[in-house]
C-alpha cells in the first residue's frame, strides 16, 4: 500500500471536475442527505468539486460554511456571511462573522484529495476536517464529496483520521463497507 505522501502526489495530478460531473455529484449529494437538515458546505479550493449547488436542490435546509483559522482550526459561519478570498483561492467568511457551533450541524460535506470505499479520506495533511469533525454532535453525518476517479482502493488511516459515513461521487453513493474484509 502506498503512503499518504505518494497518494497525495497521484491525487493532485487528477483532472478537476467538469461542469457536468459537478452537477451529477450535487444531484447524488441531494439524494444522500435529508432535506431541512443543517448542512456544512465547504467552499472549494481550485480543482475541488463544488457542493454549493445543493442550496438550490434543498432550499429548506440551513447552510453553514467554514473559515480557516490561523490556529489550524476551522470555525463555522452562516453561508451567507460576507466573504473574503483565502490565500489558497477559496472563499471564506470574513473574520468576526458570527460563529455556529459544530454540534448544531446535522451533515458535514467534507472535501478530500481522495477517498476509499471504507470511508477513508486523504486530505491535504493539515488535519483541519479531522479536528472539526471531532467537535461534531454524536449523530452528525460526515459525507465525503468527490469524483469517482478520486475513489482509491485504500487510503491509509491513522488513529486521529475520521472516517466518512458516506462517500458521494457523480456516479454513486458509497456506504462504507464493514466487516472483516473492510481493511
Provide a compact summary of the structure.
With 183 residues, the protein is an alpha/beta fold.
The helix count comes to 4
**What is the CATH first-level class name?**
Alpha Beta
Physical arrangement of strands within the biggest beta sheet:
6-3-2-1-7-10-11-12
> What pattern of helices and strands is seen along the backbone?
HHEHEEEEEEEEHEEE
Percent of sequence in beta strands: 15-25%
Mean pLDDT: 92
CATH superfamily: NagB/RpiA/CoA transferase-like
Distance between the termini: 12 Å
Looking at the overall shape, the CATH architecture is 3-Layer(aba) Sandwich
How many structural domains?
1
Can you offer a commentary on this structure?
- Helices cover 18% and strands 22% of the residues.
- It is built from four helices and twelve strands.
- The strands form three sheets. It has an eight-stranded mixed β-sheet with strand order 6-3-2-1-7-10-11-12. Strands 4-5 form a two-stranded antiparallel sheet.
- β11 (166-168) and β12 (173-174) form a beta hairpin.
Amino acid at each position: 500500500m502506498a503512503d499518504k505522501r505518494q497518494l497525495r502526489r497521484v491525487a493532485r495530478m487528477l483532472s478537476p471536475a467538469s461542469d457536468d460531473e459537478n452537477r451529477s455529484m450535487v444531484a447524488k449529494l441531494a439524494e444522500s442527505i435529508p432535506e431541512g437538515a443543517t448542512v456544512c458546505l465547504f467552499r472549494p479550493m481550485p480543482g475541488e468539486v463544488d457542493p454549493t449547488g445543493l442550496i438550490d436542490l434543498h432550499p429548506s435546509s440551513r447552510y453553514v460554511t467554514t473559515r480557516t483559522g490561523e490556529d489550524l482550526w476551522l470555525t463555522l459561519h452562516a453561508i451567507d456571511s460576507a466573504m473574503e478570498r483565502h490565500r489558497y483561492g477559496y472563499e471564506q467568511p470574513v473574520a468576526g462573522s458570527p460563529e455556529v457551533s459544530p454540534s448544531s450541524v446535522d451533515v458535514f460535506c467534507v472535501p478530500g484529495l481522495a477517498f476509499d470505499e471504507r470511508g477513508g479520506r486523504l486530505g491535504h495533511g493539515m488535519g483541519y476536517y479531522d479536528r472539526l469533525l471531532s467537535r461534531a454532535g454524536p449523530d452528525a453525518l460526515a459525507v465525503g464529496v468527490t469524483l469517482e476517479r478520486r475513489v482509491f482502493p485504500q487510503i491509509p488511516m491513522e488513529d486521529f483520521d475520521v472516517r466518512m459515513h458516506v462517500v458521494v461521487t457523480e456516479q454513486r453513493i458509497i456506504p462504507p463497507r464493514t466487516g472483516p474484509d473492510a481493511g
